[in-house]
Amino acid sequence: MSRSLVTVDALVVGAGPAGLAAATALKLGGTGTVLVVDREEEAGGIPRLCEHTGFGLRDLRRVLSGPEYARRWVERAVACGVEIRTRTMVTGWAAPGRAEMTGPSGVLEIDARTIVLATGARERPRAARLVPGTRPSGIFTTGQLQQWVHREHLPVGRRAVVVGAEHVSYSAVMTLRHAGVHPVALVTDLPRPQSYRLFDLLVRVGLRVPVWTRTSVAGVYGRDRVDEVLVRGPDGDERSVAVDTVVFTGDFIPDNELARLAGLSIDPGTRGPACAAGGATTAPGIFAAGNLVHPAETADVAARRALSVGRAAATWLRQGGDRTMPGATERVRVADPLHWVVPNMVDPARAGDESVLIRSRVFLDHPHVVVTQGHRLLASYRLRHMIPNRSHHIPSDWWGRLRPGQDVLISVSPRPGG
Amino acid sequence: MTDDHTYDVVIIGAGVVGTAIGRQLARYRLRTVMLDRCTDVGMGTSKANTAILHTGFDTRPGSLESALVRRGHELLTAYAGRAGIALEKTGAVLVAWDAEQAVRLDDVVTKSKANGYLRAHRITLEELYRREPALGGGAMGAVVIPDESIICPWSTSIAYATEAVGAGVELRLGVEVTAVTRDADAWLLRTTSGSLRSDWVVNAAGLGSDLLNHQFGHDEFTVAPRRGQLIVFDKMARPLLSSILLPVPTERTKGVLVAPTVYGNVLLGPTAEDVPDRQDTATTAVGIHGLFDAARRILPDLINEEVTATYAGLRAATEHPDYQITTHDREHYACVGGIRSTGLTASLAIAEHVVDGMGAGGLSLAEADHEPAVPHMPQLAERATRAFEDTRMIEDDPAYGHIICFCERVTEGEVRDALRAPVPAVDLGGVRRRTRATNGRCQGFFCGAAVAAQFASG
């Protein structure tokens, strides 16, 4: 049996909110055949696994549960004429623009005039965080825990430590409670929790789960099953916490393998493909959307920004889809303590129609955000605060004032600790 | 005592050495059983090592280890080809990082020759950096060892056990020997699941081999567990090197190396720490950071890549500089101890040596009617055509077209096979070692629950 070859106008890799939104916009922008492939059993992405409510506010303008939200996006894409194939995983590139994949019908190659990568992000697992100790069972990430509980209905444990205090950490607390596991504490090495004050109150006061700040996990131990987590507090003292479960939450890293295999330049901050406004990567014809680009935003932010990626890809196709045209080259960089910026490439052809996302590694009060190109001051903004693991939006009006041939730098002043 | 529990040979320990001996005994008309207190084969030193098939270029010339490593390299290279065990002959470069080490490179070549391995040779710095462009700056000299290879350590023990079991050898897992006595004509072993009698006993208990040796009334060596911590880097790091990057060895240890793995990752380690506890396979912050410091010099770009896993293994070092293999003819007891870090490489040669010794000591080695069949192990090599990309396999069975572990591209069909194999996976770790499932960069974020569910439903 030889490999079958399918030709499409647009291939979208990943059927999460961003992939589905990009595909929808591609279709509405007049693109012929738009195919979305996803390696999971069902389309819809991570929200399928988030039973709690709160989805859809910024894109669908209603409040839905995760699975309902995922279903809406699938329906919307299909209604526009987008084809979705699940259980189909892109495993590599046979040539530029030609994806190799494995699915129920076997191994196939898809030739696409344009490709949108929307492969999402995952939480860094324990090993990648270099937490020492033994390797017993009972160690999860939120994503794994949610599938464990909501999809496969497997037993979890009795007492858990949640590592992290960002949005997704609170989602992990809810999933643990749902599974009958007592969350002993949330642990963050930062001085404060990083999610909404309401979540913090619900968990600390409502559920009486403390948040241990300036505290890190110094080890996880147990023979077959976790029996102890060692935490190091603000004064450097280590103490043992008796639990049988640890959930490592947040600390998102883009699933960038296909992007790297395609030879795309990777942004040092996000570790996703470097992208201009509209998702154009360093390879003409390949676009990137969603949490692959900005690890990790809520589903509605990812979907809304992916709509503009889909529109940009459709425009590129309408304009002839010339892969020999040079891609974007100039970078938008950040200075410490900023963590990353999206978009992080300059595309002088476009005046950006979406806000610029920036993140800080530390808490900042009233930071002055400064955008410069060489010695030229392009813009400066005073923000109320910056919170690690959360994006802050700055306007994109300075895109129009860029000069070609020079990188852009975003920094904050005064520097913290000064 | 029923006849059911009477054996010609009991092998205690089903690591790579014990299973290799079981496989070797399978070709004779003997009733043999392999016992292990773990619930899978290859669970001690055999599963947590550097996964290198050594040429023996740096062993002690004239030692038993030197002879068995050299022979074992040849035997296992051939066997891996027949059984489908992932193996890649990447070669190794041994790099000197200061003048003192550079001076010793000629000794490395000389010693290699004394070990009967003639292909090790010096290369110029220019050749070194052409071969390994990502190598850190400042190397002072290098030796190439063209036949050093990387291998899948898990499949090796499983293949040996599968071949042995297929030829009628019994495998009893989760069984610990609690007492040893002897009457006029046999050993009597009391275990956590009943007693058994045997004419011969082979002690292949690895880290516990000295304690077991005491129970048989012998005291030739003491195991001093040496812990080795290792870091597995993401597959994206694999293009950074083409060969195994070795340091100049010292008396005490082979040192910290960087090696590709047959699964397409990069391995950094091991540390060498004497630990009192024979089960202390915990990693430590000091160990991990020490390895990162070593990597900064050897392969600086490596530390920018994501870490996929960290683990630690214990090697069964003793106070002696050589293997401790003794056959006590009169007692019908063979002890295979002190197999340090070269046991994987030497396993088949150790088995030959031990079984020959037992034959010379009176064990009847009458050939069985059928030669044991070499098993076909599932294809785990990153370089080979694996199930997910094999159009014929998927056509015959669509379960091979359903990838459930995305990072490692493991299919539903392969997980099913691991659960139904002659030496099946009995837990998620067993599935992992047989298929690579959940072993990848996400460590289960995407697939952990699905793999666990397939395991739970059989």
Number of helices of chain B: 13
Which strand-content bin applies to the residues of chain A?
A: 25-35%
Overall body shape of chain B: globular
- What average pLDDT do the residues of chain B reach? 95
Spatial separation of the terminal alpha carbons of chain A = 67 Å
What is the 3D form of chain A?
globular
- What would you give as the CATH superfamily of the largest domain in chain A? FAD/NAD(P)-binding domain
Low-confidence stretches of chain B: none
Measured as a percent range, the helix fraction of chain B is: 25-40%
Any idea what the CATH architecture of the largest domain in chain B is? 2-Layer Sandwich
Mean pLDDT of chain A: 93
Quaternary class: heterodimer
CATH architecture label name of the largest domain in chain A: 3-Layer(bba) Sandwich
CATH class of the largest domain in chain B: Alpha Beta
CATH class of the largest domain in chain A: Alpha Beta
Q: In words, what does this structure look like?
A:
- The complex is a heterodimer of chains A (418) and B (458).
- Chain A is α/β, with parallel strands linked by helices.
- In chain A, strand 12, helix 5 (197-206) and strand 13 (211-212) form a beta-alpha-beta unit.
- Chain A has helices at residues 17-28, 66-80, 142-151, 167-178, 197-206, 257-261, 299-318; strands spanning 4-13, 34-37, 53-55, 64-65, 83-85, 89-95, 98-103, 106-117, 121-123, 139-141, 159-163, 182-187, 211-212, 216-221, 228-232, 238-241, 245-248, 252-254, 286-288, 332-334, 338-342, 356-360, 364-365, 368-373, 376-382, 385-386, 392-394, 408-413.
- In chain A, strands 1, 2, 5, 6, 7, 8 and 19 form a seven-stranded mixed β-sheet that branches. In chain A, strands 10-17-11-12-13 form a five-stranded parallel β-sheet. In chain A, strands 20-28-24-25 form a four-stranded mixed β-sheet, with no helix packed on it.
- Chain A has three domains: 1-123 and 252-328, FAD/NAD(P)-binding domain, CATH 3.50.50.60; 125-250, 3-Layer(bba) Sandwich (FAD/NAD(P)-binding domain), CATH 3.50.50.60; 330-418, Sandwich (Immunoglobulin-like).
- Chain A has seven helices and 28 strands.
- Helix content of chain A is 20%, strand content 31%.
- The longest helix of chain A is centred in the last third of the chain and has 20 residues, at 299-318.
- Chain B is an alpha+beta fold and 458 residues long.
- Chain B has three domains: 3-47 and 153-223 and 320-360, FAD/NAD(P)-binding domain; 88-150 and 224-318, 2-Layer Sandwich (D-Amino Acid Oxidase, Chain A, domain 2); 387-457, no CATH class.
- In chain B, 30% of the residues lie in helices and 24% in strands.
- Chain B has 13 helices and 22 strands.
- Chain B has helices at residues 16-25, 64-83, 99-103, 105-114, 125-131, 153-166, 209-215, 285-298, 343-360, 391-396, 412-420, 428-435, 448-457, and strands at residues 6-12, 32-36, 52-53, 87-88, 92-96, 121-123, 141-145, 149-151, 170-173, 177-182, 187-191, 194-203, 223-233, 244-247, 257-260, 266-269, 273-274, 307-318, 324-328, 333-337, 403-405, 410-411.
- In chain B, strands 1, 2, 9, 10, 11, 12, 19 and 20 form an eight-stranded mixed β-sheet that branches. In chain B, strands 13, 15, 16, 17 and 18 form a five-stranded antiparallel β-sheet that branches. In chain B, strands 6-7-5-14 form a four-stranded mixed β-sheet.
- The longest helix of chain B is centred in the first third of the chain and has 20 residues, at 64-83.
- Chain B is globular.
- Chains A and B meet through strand 7, helix 3 and strand 14 of A and helix 8, strand 18, helix 10 and helix 13 of B.
